[in-house]
Amino acid sequence: MIWIWLGFIAFVLLMLALDLGVFHRHAHVVKLKEALAWSAVWASLGLAFAVFIYFGYDNHWLGLGSHVDAVDGLVNTGHTAVLKYLTGYVVEKSLSVDNVFVIAMLFGFFAVPAIYQHRVLFWGIIGALVLRGVMIALGTKLIAEFHWILYLFGLLLIATAVKMLVVKSDHTNPNHNIVVRLTRRFFPITEHFHGEHFVVRAGAPGSLEPEIPGGKTLPDRIVQSAKPGSLLLTPLALALVMVETTDLIFAVDSIPAIFAITADPFLVFTSNVFAILGLRSLYFALAGAIEKFRFLKISLAAVLALVGVKMLVADWLKDTIGPNFNLYLLLVVLLILAAGVVASLALAPKHQESPHA
User: Fold this and answer.
1) Is residue 220 domain-shared with residue 110, that is, in the same domain?
2) Is the dihedral of CA 205, 210, 212, 216 positive or negative?
3) How many CA atoms lie within 13 A of 169 on its CB side?
4) pTM score, two decimals?
5) Is residue 125 classed as helix, strand or coil in its secondary structure?
6) What is the pLDDT of residues 13-22, one digit of tens each?
7) 29 lies in which domain range?
């Protein structure tokens, strides 16, 4: 079983190396056309992996499909494994859309230049993959030993859905965040950006006078006051810290959501990974059109509530609807998301005409 894990992780690392080392070797502004193309690439890889899931679980490759799924008490076949994988992928992908809203707000607050946003998101994704791997391993162990924790996860999802509808986070000031305050307290942070660097050394060539568009320079008071040779964080690093913190918060919601569908660690991890890998391109594709999807947050809250309720009454659903209830869950999730998108586009506020028109 370990070989299939190592093979999948090697594949992910290869794709990330190609992404950063070949296709995005040089910093540049990601345009909409490029973002849509990469979104299609990551989505295609995620969906194509479902074929591997089907045959792998149906033929028990390297131990796949040989253990009982703690969520429904069944051994996953190729058919059930694909349904759970796709449902998990769609749920995680849809929840990552809300993450895009917050990342856009953070980039706007820290005034991160568009040319460096891809770099922040890339390393943010690396941290997110490691973090979620640890959380999934912990969650799988907890569910295996304490099945009742599934009901706790369900209540958490329902509470999160209510919070998503009630709490307004559009105008949150990151300066008030405890992580930002602690980072500023324990690490010296430069006043200006220093290219694509997260860390600079005081006194190093080019560190005293950061460049700005037009070939001009700006004095950096914090760098000038630091001891020569000391390491300093840049505002780009502060933005990365907040992106990682944001993903940690969202992982607390999304990890229980996938465990409502399956407790198979391979299905949980792979569906999460493919959903996260497409987050960067999804951000650049949606960042400019976020305001158009004003009803999407309601749809996301409805998805969380639905998954939470499903987690609470999974046994009843299995007895009432039958073994295909995961297929119906997938269809309902897709319907809810589609309704949010259609409502946002159909009920978009019309621009007021100029009185001089």
Assistant:
1) no
2) negative
3) 17
4) 0.83
5) helix
6) 998 888 777 7
7) 2-164+254-346
